[in-house]
Design a protein that fits this description.
Elements: E1 2-6, H1 13-24, E2 29-33, H2 41-49, E3 56-58, E4 64-65, H3 68-78, H4 89-104, H5 107-112, E5 120-122, H6 128-148, H7 159-173, H8 180-191, H9 193-205, E6 217-219, E7 229-232, E8 251-255, E9 258-262, H10 265-273, H11 279-287
Helix pairs in contact: 1-3, 1-7, 1-9, 4-7, 7-8, 9-10
Bound molecules: glutathione.
């Protein structure tokens, strides 16, 4: 079992990049929450694994991974049969190259358009430096998508998609100008099940940081429209045990006129935020 320390999901693009491979490739892990901009943050990360930033991961044998790139390379090595990277040599090199360009680059885009999964921002006027970052990103995506045929960069989901997920989230959230091919790839990213689960959890944890507010008009975040669902105070429920934990139900939500139970407030709220993102819940609701 891996342990992964992350920051506030709505804003911590590096945490998203670190977590996506665990979820997308079904790698067992426990998530621990750190709080960016909290005076205790540095001590918390240091106590977790001796690191300074999030995400940070502890391997099952006690190793410390304090960087998204080391997490990615470690997991690709530890799970060689799960397709974290393309098999074919030259394609694999292309994916690794794209990951590295992301990890060390696109500073103008990152600085001008911080990730915020709780709101979109209207009226962003990208600087020349941001436009140059976008042009390079589009060129890299085009190279991969033309080779693979999509919908992900290398056909099926790989670590390269995990690394570019926050970039896609920024392009969407600030309505940045990109061509049709990049736009379609951004939509693929926003519809990706792991990305939807992360955003649903960002909404559920509701840890709002005003430091990321922009001098722009808010607009709804352009995510796929969730199925309508709402939290309710009480049953009776269609189910007795939580679809996530198997424990008795204690928290309730309504969808399609039926009431369902889960075993804690966070899982209720993440389900309400985007029911279709959660296969265990949907399996229950569709079978029930
Ligand atoms: N190189 C690191 C960067 C991680 C990073 O900068 N994380 C931010 C949060 S998104 C952080 O922990 N900032 C707190 C700080 O710098 O003190 C990686 O790839 O993991």
């Amino acid at each position: 079992m891996y342990d992964l320390l992350i920051g506030q999901r709505a804003y911590s693009s590096w945490s998203l990049r670190g977590w996506l491979p665990f979820d997308a490739f079904d790698i067992p892990h426990r998530v621990h929450l750190a709080t960016l901009y909290d005076p205790g943050f540095a001590d918390q990360v240091a106590a977790f694994c001796g690191g300074r930033t999030v995400p940070a991961a502890k391997t099952p044998d006690g190793g410390a991974l304090t960087d998204t790139l080391s997490i990615a390379w470690h997991l690709a090595e530890a799970f060689p049969d799960r397709g974290l990277l393309p098999d074919d040599g030259p394609t694999r090199a292309m994916a690794q190259n794209m990951i590295c360009e992301m990890h060390s680059g696109f500073g103008a885009l990152r600085a001008a358009c911080p990730m915020n999964l709780l709101t979109g921002w209207d009226g962003c006027q990208p600087s020349d430096a941001v436009l140059a970052d976008l042009a390079r990103i589009e060129a890299l995506w085009a190279q991969a998508l033309e080779r693979s045929g999509g919908p992900y960069l290398f056909g099926a989901y790989t670590l390269a998609d995990a690394f570019y997920a926050p970039v896609a989230a920024r392009i969407a959230g600030y309505a940045l100008p990109v061509g049709a091919q990049a736009r379609a790839y951004v939509d693929t990213q926003l519809n990706d099940p792991s990305m939807r689960r992360w955003r649903a959890m960002a909404i559920a944890e509701n840890r709002v940081l005003s430091v990321y507010d922009q001098p722009l008009e808010r607009m709804p975040y352009p995510a796929p429209k969730p199925l309508p669902a709402k939290a309710v105070n009480a049953g009776p429920t269609e189910n007795d045990s939580c679809p996530y934990s198997g424990k008795p139900v204690t928290h309730f939500l309504e969808m399609d006129g039926k009431t369902w139970g889960v075993c804690n407030a966070f899982c209720r709220d993440k389900t309400v935020a985007d029911p279709a993102a959660w296969p265990k819940f949907m399996g229950l609701a569709q079978g029930g």
